[in-house]
Amino acid sequence: MELPSLQKELIKRLSPGQFFSGQKLAHELGVSRTSVWNHLKSLEQLGFKLHAVKGKGTRLEKPMELLDKSELALHSYQSRQGALSQLTLLDICTSTNDYLSQKNKQTRLVNGTVCLAEMQTAGKGRLGRSWVSPYGQNIYMSFFWRFKNGLSTLAGLSLACGVAVCSALQELGVKGHGLKWPNDILWQGKKLGGILVEIQGESQSEYSAIIGIGINYDMGEKASEGIDQPWVDLANVKEGRVGRNKLAAMVIDKVLRVLKDYESTGLLPHVSDWNSFDCYHGEKVKILSGKTAIQGVAKGISSTGELLLLRPNGQLEGISSGEVSLRLDKP
Ligand code: BTN
Q1: Is beta strand 113-120 parallel, antiparallel or unpaired with respect to 138-147?
Q2: Domains of the chain: residue spans and CATH
C-alpha cells in the first residue's frame, strides 16, 4: 500500500528530525494548514511520534532514516554483482513475506527478488506469533529463491541465513550478538531480530523459499508495547550510529551470498560459524513442543541444522526445528 503523496512528502521533510512550522509545511507543499494538520494527525495514527512546541512547530520525536534505493545500492556489493535481481521498496504492506508470495502467484519471481517495507500491518513471526513492525523504525525484508534439491536440504536454510545476518552485524562493528537455535538473533539474551522462512512446493521437484528477516533498529517505546519478550534494538547495542540503509544493504549482501550457493553446498559451510555465534552452547535448556518439554544441554547444531541436545542419560539427540521452541532451563 502506498501512502498518499502528501503524507509521504511530510514524512520526507520531517524525517531529519528538525522543527517545521505548520505554515512553512503548508507553503512548501502547496496546501492549506488545515490539510497539513489533518495529515499530521493521520501520521500519528500510523504510529509516528510527533513533538509540537509552541513558536517552533512540529518535529518527529527522533530522526528517521527512510529507506532509499540509491543509498542501498551504495552499500551493496551483490547488487553490483547481479545476485540482486529485483529490489522493491514498499511503504506499507501486510507482510513482506506475503507480498513476495502473492507476487510469485501472479508472475513467476526470479531468484534474488528482494523486498523491503517501511511498515508491516500484519508482520509474522515464527510459530504463528506476530512481529511488531512500526513505520521506519526497524528493518523488514524478504528474499525469494527457488530450489531444486528436495525439501529436506532446506531445513538448514534459515540457520545459514542467521549466520549471514550475524556476520553483517559483526562487519558493522556490533559486538555481543549471537544466535539462539533455530534462528533468533539475540544480544545479551534479548531479541534483536528474527528470521521466518516459508517454503512452498511449486512442482514435484521445485520449492520456493521466502526468507523474511526482521531486525530491531531504533524502535520507540510506544511501538514496542506489543512485544511479549525481552527485546533490544541496534540503537541501544551499538555505540555510534549504523545507517539503516547501510544495515539493510549489508544484510542483503550477506544473505544473497548464502542463497547463491545454498543449492550446491547446503548448510555445511555455515555450521562452524553458526556454532561460533551460538548463545546457548553448553547451557541447560528445555525444548518445548505443545505441552511436552525435553531437557538437556545445548551442544550446537548438526550438519543438517538439528539442535544437538545432550540428554540426562548421556545420549546426544538431534532436535529438528519444526514447531518447537527453545528456552533456558533455569529454576
Ligand atoms: C521470528 O523471530 O519469530 C521471526 C520474525 C520474522 C520477521 C520478519 S519481518 C520481515 C518478514 N515479514 C514478516 O511478516 N515476517 C518477517
Answers
A1: antiparallel
A2: 5-60 (1.10.10.10), 69-276 (3.30.930.10), 280-328 (2.30.30.100)
